[in-house]
């Protein structure tokens, strides 16, 4: 099934409400897949936490969570033949203005992350 891209959420988003994502990345790095596809065009990934209030530097738990997210995104991009330009925020406030997009440096060519 061809997807258009991957949408990133955070769990503080009021529209998530425990559903509306294909993969949930918990604070401890656990990945929980959804039982059912949520959108035929996009893969939705939700991070546990509120990234709209993110402060720097990142705490170790956030660093681990983002590392797991990078690995998941790398696998999804390769599997569905997408590229890093196909990553999108859910809305202007989700995952938040302070979401560390620069931490998601991904290159599927040399597997650099």
Biggest beta-sheet profile: 5 strands, mixed
| Oligomer class | single chain
Could you name the ranges where pLDDT drops below 50 across 5 or more consecutive residues? none
Percent helix: 10-25%
Helix/strand-derived category reads alpha/beta
Tell me the span between the first and last alpha carbons: 26 Å
Strand content: 15-25%
Note down, in words, how this protein is organized.
This protein has about 110 residues and is of the alpha/beta class. The chain contains one helix and five strands. It has one helix spanning about 60-80, and strands at about 5-10, 25, 30-35, 40-45, 85-90. The longest helix is centred in the middle third of the chain and has 20 residues, at about 60-80. The model has no long low-confidence stretch (mean pLDDT about 85).
